[in-house]
Write a structure and sequence with these properties.
globular, 430 residues
């Protein structure tokens, strides 16, 4: 195989396949990820120097932390049972050990992802149309119903879509010879985004897309067209009854919920009634979860080490139940906030470590003026406030795959420049 393709071409192709696997079922994605990792470990020269970089080092360190947390949990079986999921962080970064990622390599991976998510969304749209024609209600083909074919969470899938859409206004843009042809995959992705019906993702994407396009376009007439297009998108979103209902009901916030205060005194505990639980909005339940777990986390005096990977769900369920939020209501629900989840599971120092990793990523993205990377970090960091994405297969792979992709490409670029400045001859040999 190496007679026809060099290792760099093969590795770029394997990374592209890992990106393709994100769009479809977990077993397909895991298979492609394992193939890429095995090929890197056994058939390429590995750059172990990169283990010192934050891009590779942080996921490996975080996996080591999860092992310790699992072993020191009271429920060790539960903690160890999560390690196969956490192992994805390691598998994701292994293919980058042998990659010399220049911009053209990164662009190939990103563009391949654009094609694959466009195709995947087109298939979902055809299936949704067929279901609707056969009499299914519109609400049954949106949100979870829309992505059910791939067993995907609609919030994650909507993140893939907006990431792909944003490539079209950056230097990663795919160049088509025909503007009409260019609009076809974009229209497919926009339709898919609406049917995914993720409120947080739609709002952030609309704001950032409009701001970015408005800044890069100089023509006043084109700015007017863009403004009208964004306004039309907003009107379209609210004109669809199901989406209108999701936005209006999901974002309500009552004064009673705002005044809710957790307590360890069972005589004064707030016990949510059936009607109250029926009418709690998505935003309200996240506020309640966060307030309950932060209060009891601090009262339990486990600031340094957290509850542990094997015990955090047991404590979460116990405290939710004490306010009559379960069972059969919110049993098995996590805190729905990635930052709080890391804090209560692994402790304060691990949360600080994670935040430093995010800040370091933002620093590199801003330093290199990589608008696609900045968008990726903003959308990921924002969703972290409403979802615990890094405990699900697709959430882990999506975040660490693309974050490592961007970080490694910049690290390689800087190292190449520094070698070139020190020794032009050595630079030519590389």
């Amino acid at each position: 195989m190496n007679k026809f393709f060099n290792n760099n071409q093969i590795n770029t192709a394997l990374l592209s396949l890992v990106g393709l696997g994100l769009c479809y079922k977990v077993n397909i994605g895991n298979l492609l990820l394992i193939i890429a990792a095995v090929y890197t470990l056994f058939f390429t020269k590995k750059s172990f120097i990169r283990l010192k970089s934050i891009a590779i080092g942080f996921p490996l360190l975080f996996f080591f932390i999860t092992i310790i947390s699992a072993l020191y949990s009271k429920d060790k079986n539960e903690g160890i049972g999560h390690l196969d999921l956490m192992l994805l962080m390691v598998l994701v970064v292994i293919p980058y050990l042998s990659q010399n990622l220049e911009f053209k390599n990164v662009k190939k991976v990103v563009n391949f992802f654009f094609y694959s998510i466009s195709l995947g969304t087109f298939i979902l749209l055809l299936l949704s149309i067929a279901k609707y024609v056969n009499g299914q209600d519109f609400s049954e083909i949106t949100f979870h119903g829309f992505t059910r074919l791939y067993d995907q969470h609609p919030v994650y899938y909507s993140m893939y879509i907006v990431f792909a859409l944003y490539t079209q206004i950056t230097s990663y843009k795919i160049k088509f010879n025909n503007k009409f042809i260019e609009l076809i995959p974009i229209s497919i992705l926009v339709a898919g985004l609406l049917l995914c019906a993720s409120k947080a993702v739609i709002v952030v994407f609309t704001i950032m897309f409009f701001t970015r396009v408005f800044l890069i376009i100089k023509s006043i007439r084109q700015k007017v067209y863009i403004s009208i297009s964004v306004l039309a998108f907003v009107i379209l979103t609210y004109s669809i009854p199901f989406l209108n209902e999701r936005f209006n009901s999901g974002l309500t916030f009552s004064s009673e919920i705002l005044s809710f205060k957790p307590t360890n005194d069972f005589t004064n505990k707030k016990l949510f009634s059936y009607d109250e639980k029926e009418n709690i909005s998505d935003l309200e339940i996240r506020y309640i979860f966060a307030k309950i777990m932060l209060y009891h986390f601090l009262k339990d005096d486990i600031l340094i080490f957290g509850y542990g990977q094997g015990d955090v769900q047991n404590y979460t369920d116990y405290y939710n139940f004490s306010y009559n939020l379960g069972p059969r209501w919110y049993e098995g629900y996590n805190v729905h906030n990635q930052y709080i989840y890391i804090l209560i599971t692994y402790g304060l120092f691990v949360l600080i470590l994670f935040l430093l990793y995010i800040c370091y990523s933002f620093y590199y993205a801003i330093k290199h003026r990589n608008h696609l990377y900045i968008f990726f970090l903003i959308i990921s960091s924002f969703v972290f406030f409403f979802e615990v994405t890094l405990v699900r297969n697709k959430g882990i792979v999506f975040f660490y795959f693309f974050n490592t992709l961007f970080l490694i490409s910049h690290i390689y670029f800087e190292n190449s420049n520094s070698r070139h400045k020190r020794s032009p001859k050595s630079s030519r040999r590389v």
